[in-house]
Each structure stands twice: as C-alpha cells, then as structure tokens.
Amino acid sequence: MLFDPRPKVNKKDLYDFEKEFEFLKKNIGEPLLVVSGLRRTGKTSLILSTLNDSDIPYVFFDMRSMPNSRRDLYHLLSEGLTDFLTRISNKEKFYKSLTKMLKLIRGISVDGFEVSLSWGKDRASLVEILRALDESCVEHGIKAVIVFDELQRVTGKLSVELANAIAYSYDHLRNLSFIVSGSEMGVLYRFFDEPNAPLYGRAYLEVKTRRLDKEKSIDFLKRGFEESKIRVNDEELEAAVDKLDGIIGWLTYYGYSRTMQNRDFESIWREAVTMARQELENFLKNRVSAERYRAVLKFLANGEREWKELKKKMEDLEGRVLSERVLYDILITLRKYSIIDDQNNFLDPLAEEAARNL
What we know:
Residues 18-248 form the ATPase domain. This is ATPase. InterPro entries: ATPase_dom (IPR011579), P-loop_NTPase (IPR027417), WH-like_DNA-bd_sf (IPR036388), WH_DNA-bd_sf (IPR036390). The chain is of the alpha/beta class. 55% of the residues lie in helices and 10% in strands. The strands form two sheets. Strands 2-5-6-1-7 form a five-stranded parallel beta sheet, sandwiched between helices. Helix 1 crosses helix 2, helix 11 packs across helix 12 and helix 12 (265-285) crosses helix 16.
C-alpha cells in the first residue's frame, strides 16, 4: 500500500526506487554501506525492502529516538536483538547457537526471544555482542547485516564507542557487514570524514535518496488514491504537490490522512507543519544559544537569506554588534543538520513554514 505511513518492507510497495534498490541489493555484503538523504525521503523503507528481498539475516537498530544515555542505547540494542531472534527462530540451529553464545556474555540475559542488556558496571560491550553474532554466522556459513538507522542521533562518548565497535567489526569480523543511514548528513559524515574518527579511512559505498519531481509526485498520489478507491481532483493534487515539494514521506502522510480520515488538504498541512515545528523545537532544545538559532530560523523563513541582511537583523534584535563567527557557526550547524542548504534555503518546505512561527 503506497499510503501506508509505516516504513515499507516489500519491494512492491516502494515507489520510484528501482535504481537505489538495485544498487543496495547488489552491494549487500560489502563491509559498509551508507544510505543518506533528507528526512522522510524513504531511507528506512529502502533498507528494509532491500534486505527482505535479499532474504539475508539482519539486525536492525533504530536510533531515531536519539539515545542520550547508556541506558537509552542499551534499551535500543536490546530491542533490536530481540526482534532479530524472533525473526531467525525458523533457522533453528543458528538461533540456538546465537542464544547460547549470547548467554555466555556477562550482562546479557536471554529468555525465549527476549534479550535484555545490563547497562551497569557488568554490562556487555557492543564488540562482545558482535563477536558472538559473527562466530554463530561463521559456524553456520551465514552472512548477516547490522543496520544502524539514523546513526548520527547517537552523540558524545556513546557515538565514539559505537563507531569503534563498527570499525573493529569492519577490520576483523568477516561475516558481518554494516548499513548505516542518516538524514543529518553533515553530522553523519563526521563518523567517516574526520581524521580522528574511528571509521576514518574505511572505504564505504553510498546510496542517496531523493525528492520526487513534480510529475512523479502527482503519479504517486494518483496511484495511491486509485489503490484506496478515492477520487481527488487535479487541482487539489497540484496544490499538494507544489507545497510538499516531492518529499515522499509528506506525500504519503497527506495521502493517508486524506484517504483514512477524509480530511481536506489545509487541515492536513496545518497538522504536518505542527509536526515539523516540534522537530525544530527538539533541535533547538539541544542548542546552547537556542534563542539565536530561533531568531535566525525565523529570519530565513521570512526571506532574509543574504549574510549582510541576516547579520543586521540579528544585531538590531540584540541591540549590539555581533561577531561574524556567531552567525557563521549558526548557519554551518543548520547546514550540518540538513535544515538549510548552502544558499540558506530550507530543505523541507514544512520546516520553513514552521520556522515562521517559532
């Protein structure tokens, strides 16, 4: 179903991803694959659909909830391992071998399919977990994929620990390969491109998700509404496509809300803008100079894109001269988090609308 709001898990439900799908499927098993792209452009759907089509065992760790403590991280790791054991239970020998090895590691308990990781002093390291998985794979002639979805959401010491574990596995665990995804590209690439990063120098292959063009966006909506046996006039479709700017996640959200809740486009738009605003608020919550970021976002959303004008607006607002470094750092951070591009344009039209009312 094209308008299913959950990540797609089957190739037949993907739309206009043929090239990306074939690239990813062809290269599954390479040591490290990176799937990058803006929020809501189908990264998770692409990964899951490709892996399911390939019939290769995979562990999926969902980092979208932004783990900011070891407790949070180990809870997410527990969830991913529990899901994995559930899915491989039909491979009885592999399942029994892996559960046996996991039970031997201090800080891990396994009860049926459920895995629980201790995050205290007796905790297991991620390297120990990956070693156990690799040993089971070697024993049974199996290759497995480890997915870290939205890897860049892990920050601080935990991100270094995670990157070190991936780097160790890349070098030593030959029956494991990795797929990492990220929507905040400037933040994601720090894992690979900074000289002091644990993964620096490791080769990786990358596939990028993209917006749909106008023609494809209209076709996507028409097909989705046909599937749902709903008729929507061309004028409304054109308006929706113009405002949602080819971002398939927003197009899906509109199609689902229109189909299942019989709502008009304007009410769907307002609710989506509210969601986008909450995402900006979450971003601001972690900024030291949150009010400055808020002001810059509002000025950008209201059309002030030139450096000179932005600086003047900020100085007028604060009633003092600002160093160029202050504004520079704010704009660089907004670019790293894929909120704006190099010309200071918003990358998501809903984020732009939301920023006007921050």
